[in-house]
Amino acid sequence: MALTQFPVTGTFQAVISDSSDAGGESDVQNISSTVWFTPSVQQVYSASEGKVIRLAPVRARTNPDDGMLRTIDGNTVSLISNSAALGLENLYWTVTFSNVVYDRAEREITSFTFEAPQDSTPVDLATVARVVL
Predict the structure, then answer these.
(1) CA distance 26 to 52
(2) pLDDT tens digits for 58-74?
(3) Which runs of E-coded beta strand occur in the chain?
(4) For the purposes of burial, counting CB atoms within 10 Å of the CB of 18, is it exposed (0-12), middle (13-18) or buried (19 or more)?
(5) Please, which residues bridge with residue 113 across strands?
């Protein structure tokens, strides 16, 4: 039984004060950031795979051109699912942000945790249920 991965998507934008454009409405700006996905366990022994599996943090980014989440190489982010191959009751991924920039300043985005699906069901960070551990 092979390990299963699921795609992770998300678009990050900020509503900022009106700039020197026409009109007085607030502006929407894409966010640039480094994003880390950290698994709730770092190592499992998979009886079905017959091996020790290490789960390392995964680095990604949000692009200032469109605010979309991507790998450092510009591809879709994929994380390990909580498939039967891992033999875990639950697997969680914690999302943390650093180097967050919008409105020409360094900012913050609050970290959160979500439960990994058991299959390749896509996860959108804008809509995924947050969990408190």
Answers:
(1) 51
(2) 999 999 999 999 999 99
(3) 5-9, 13-16, 27-30, 32-39, 43-46, 51-54, 58-62, 69-71, 77-80, 92-102, 105-107, 112-115, 123-124
(4) exposed
(5) 94
Query: Average pLDDT, stretch 40-58?
Result: 91
Enter the tokens of residue 116: 């990994």
Mean pLDDT on 45-50: 82
2 phi and psi angles, rounded to 5 deg: -85, 160
Candidates 2.60.120, 2.60.40, 3.80.10, 1.10.340; CATH matching 5-15+27-124: 2.60.40
Residue 27: both structure tokens together: 């502006």
Domain residue limits, the chain: 5-15+27-124
- The one-letter amino acid code at 106 reads E
